[in-house]
Amino acid sequence: MSQQAHRSADTTAGTQEPETPNLDFAGTTPYEDYVKADVLTHLQHTLSDDPGEMVFLVTTQVMELWFTVIVHEWETAARALREDRPGVAVDALKRSVRELEALNASWTPLGQLTPAQFNSYRSALGEGSGFQSAMYRRLEFLLGEKSASMLVPHRGAPRVHAELEKALHEPSLYDEVLRFLARRGHAVPDAVLTRDVTRRYEPSEDVEAVWTEIYTGDQNAELTRLGEALTDVAELVWRWRNDHLVATRRAMGAKAGTGGSAGVAWLEKRAQKNVFPELWTARSHV
Ligand code: HEM
Q: Is 239:104 a contact under the CB 8 Å cutoff?
């Protein structure tokens, strides 16, 4: 009798316990081969003896992993738009919306640090700062927030630097959206379509007019759905920035950041930036 037939006979008769999982593997488990859990769970090298540092480090690592997934989704969406496959793009954007929600939920363990708790390990961080996160920078580049100077901190890490340089020179997700809208007959100006994609995207009144026209039309149309998926992304990125800002304000008040910035004052300025700006301003005209 095959193992499967054997199992179903047992289940029908109800006489024996269900089969237990396999215990016997020649090498490492297939789970380990796939997940690399042994590697992943031995990367928590804290720098102080403070018991509260572990969750700070792991939250940061968890956020890096979410950044990686979200960058993957947005690169998928950008490529799909380039290939005129809006359905694939919207699917990827919608996945990223759920992932951004999970990313933002991971602020919870750090959201209420007191200055004394944070001080217990802060000095051990030296000049280390999330500002130096290359994956976060790729995420910002995909949103159109490009800046060549953001490559400078990564000169000492060739692979990271090469990936960032490539991302700097590629059209952002928003550039691909606007090129796609132009191919669909919308009046996106040439200056926007041929802009230097290594520079920060600047809002355009003509692009605002394009989104106004799209949103004024059929509310269930494909382009409105694309606009709404992008608006969800923009809102959740804004929420991440603001949760970060509030957590920082609680943990360190107005002190300077470990990365050398003015701290909260600098983050406040960053949080004011609108993601996909015309998707917000067009709403006043619909
Ligand atoms: C409560 C804990 C945290 C505090 C007090 C804090 C503080 C700061 C400060 C002051 C800055 C400005 C740059 C500087 O001078 O260092 C900054 C930037 C940044 N932090 Fe945090 N941070 C915290 C947690 C995190 C976590 C868990 C992440 C996840 C990766 C993170 C990611 C970032 C990023 C990406 C930036 C750059 C933002 C940008 O370029 O606009 N931070 N943080």
A: yes
